[in-house]
Amino acid sequence: MSAIFDRIKERDAQVIMRTYGRYPLAVQRAQGARLYDFDGKEYVDLLAGIAVCGLGHGRPDLARVMAEQAEKLVHVSNLFFQEEQIVLAEKLLATCQADKVFFCNSGAEANEGAIKLARRFMQVVRKREAFEIVTLEGSFHGRTLATLTATGQSGKIKDGFGPLPPGFVTVPFADACALRSAVSDRTAAVLVEMVQGEGGVRPLPAEFVDALLALRREKGFLLIVDEVQTGMGRTGRFWAHQHFGLTPDIFTTAKGLANGLPMGAVLATDEAAQGFESGCHATTFGGGGVLSAVACKVLDILAEDKLVERAAELGAWLLDEAKKLLARHPDKIAHVRGLGLMLGIELAAPGQAVWKALLEAGFVCNLAHDKVLRLLPPLTIAREDLAAFLQALDSILTRGA
Ligand SMILES: Cc1ncc(COP(=O)(O)O)c(C=O)c1O
């Protein structure tokens, strides 16, 4: 570790609250799918700020839009009509079956809004005393009190934050029988990720989704899909739920929406959107001019450069190559799974040493649940960079990390 890095680490410890287990890396600048540390060392970025910078780093086209809008109008508040926000909503709605949008600032805030919308829809529009939100084990929905309660994980995420809000039930992952027993007249919504991200890149099995949809028809709860990580083309369709041919009543997005600026959104059908009326939900910064203008440009670039199709094609190739690696190292790799440019390589044993060896070799990825190497690269990444990663992993596994 260099002296510059050591000093940064020390200063961080003095002034930043200790909530993050940081990587031994301080990034000074980034370009495309490359990160550079303070000593000028180059890394291939297979994480894209955790599925945020889908179009890659340091883009002059996005910087230009940001600067132009900043000169024109940065913030005026949601007391006013804002054209940039309307244009963005129109573009987003053209990608899906939803009819209305609420803009906010993060994934957790989008999920919090979705939960509020579902409850209010049930209680005010349907006039039912339904408030429970059912979620799945292994899920991750955010760090606010409601969304951490919805999150299907235990440990540090929840410990010491009690009392947690009531009205949340978690059932085992993809267990249709458990879901059926958990759903009752009190259920307002079932909230799922189509591919669990923080949970280790776990797609929902098609049979479970079929059972969930049948239960929705029978019981009349709302289906909320958390697309905070899977949205914006990441999985090779614009929205992951489109792989499953379903229409959520409500879904959320954030991470990739403004390629690194903090923005989230709740999207809903006209029917579900009736749950909100003037004055019942709001946020100061949501849908501000700069954010909206940048997100519009993100949507334009995704379409012009056919990046969603690219994620599907490159992701299928990557999954195939990862399966070949599994065949070469059946004792070291337990599973590979993924959808589009969201890949999980589950190691047979705890993977800290492998992850660290990859970082030293210049490849940044994430280690989920101790064993799953999680890749969420920019959708623009070169195939050669992915091939170089696979080769590096192959040699690390061959020699033993
Ligand atoms: C599926 C999912 N939902 C919600 C969140 C929370 O988003 P944020 O950190 O922007 O609040 C995340 C973040 O990783 C996520 O992956």
Q: Record the strand order, biggest sheet.
A: 4-12-11-10-7-5-6
Average pLDDT level:
97
Radius of gyration: 21 Å
Number of beta strands: 17
**Secondary structure: helix percent:** 25-40%
| Count of helical stretches | 13
Taking the sheet with the most strands, its summary is:
7 strands, mixed
Ligands, ions, cofactors: pyridoxal-5'-phosphate
Order of helices and strands: HEEEHHHEHEHEHEEEHEEEHHHEEHEEEH
Q: What is the total number of structural domains?
A: 2
CATH topology group of the largest domain:
Aspartate Aminotransferase, domain 2
Structure description:
β5, α6 and β6 (168-171) form a beta-alpha-beta unit. α3 (60-72) runs antiparallel to α10 (289-304) and α11 packs parallel to α13 (383-399). The chain has helices at 3-15, 48-51, 60-72, 83-93, 107-125, 145-150, 176-182, 206-219, 270-273, 289-304, 307-328, 352-360, 383-399, and strands at 27-31, 34-37, 42-45, 100-104, 132-136, 168-171, 187-192, 195-196, 202-203, 222-226, 250-253, 264-268, 333-338, 343-347, 363-364, 366-368, 372-375. The strands form four sheets. Strands 4-12-11-10-7-5-6 form a seven-stranded mixed β-sheet, sandwiched between helices. The protein has a four-stranded mixed β-sheet with strand order 1-2-3-15. A four-stranded antiparallel β-sheet has the order 13-14-17-16, with helices on one face. It contains 13 helices and 17 strands. It has two domains: 3-58 and 306-399, Alpha-Beta Complex (Aspartate Aminotransferase, domain 1), CATH 3.90.1150; 73-304, Aspartate Aminotransferase, domain 2 (3-Layer(aba) Sandwich), CATH 3.40.640.10. It is an alpha/beta fold and 401 residues long. The model has no long low-confidence stretch (mean pLDDT 97). The two termini are 19 Å apart. Bound molecules: pyridoxal-5'-phosphate. Residues 50, 106-108, 111, 140-142, 193, 197-198, 226, 228-229, 254 line the site of pyridoxal-5'-phosphate.
